[in-house]
Amino acid sequence: MPFNYKSSGSYEYTFSDSSLSAKRTYTLPNESGGLITTNMTGSFRTGSFSGSLSGSLSGSLTGSFNGWSGSLTWIDAFPTGSWRTGSFTGSFSGLLEGSASYALVAGAIAGGGASGTSGTSGASGATGTSGTSGASGATGTSGTSGTSGTSGGRGVDGTSGTAGTSGTGFSTITNFTDNRVLTSDGTANSANAEANLTFDGSTLSLTGTLTVSAAARLTDIEERATTATINPVGGGLTFDLSTANTFIVSSSNNVTTLTISNPPALNFAGSFTLVTVGNGTPYVWSWGTAITWSGGGPPTITSTNNKRDIYGFISTNQGTNWYGFVAGQNF
Q: Is the pTM of this model over 0.85?
């Protein structure tokens, strides 16, 4: 085992032994002139030591290291570190070199010999400073919405408004009878129940003339139809437009005189329809000078039994002249 020792006075001693088949003893001078004897076991005792160690070590290193300061470098892939004070026990294998300075070393280097007693434990090192705090985590997702609360109760009803003033109405009604429509007679709070204007809840009836100043929009319109009879004495026939607008005449006699009463008023047009029914005998009709026929002359009335002809008449000058036309024959 090669071992180099160099003292502070630049004295260097080198020992080399290729094989240790038996214990050998080496005597080294210490720094103060004394000698240390070792046969691979022994102790170093000196007041101070400085120098370098180099060589190859194999075996166990045990002992106490007191007052150590310095650094050791482990070759062949061993780490570098510092030893301060305390007790150490362990095995070493490899190349060691470095420098040391200490006030007192008490221990043993043992090759094949018995291990020395373990040194006392060193004092604990100072506590390291705390690391920096980690970054805050990401904000979590929002929770689901809660369910809706129950509906509130019904509020208190408001107070009723004040009553309106009562209307005056009609205090006097003349000619009152059921279903008559009331019209004002020009006196305050007084009305007349019209005999010619009635309403029974579904039908409005008017006896007289209905004047409409604007357009009359009707869903349905019906005209009154009536039967007109030829007077067998003298052959007179009358169409009263105040009673109907359609007249049905069954042939029974010749018509010698035709009268149209209650024609439309001034600036109004009026019309009526004539339906003749034959009885199998032809009769002569005298239409008078007030009626003008289309085609220049009056038609021939169908005489066949129960056959009907339809004729139309219209006047625009209060019945002074009437225009007659054939709507259809032999129905």
A: no
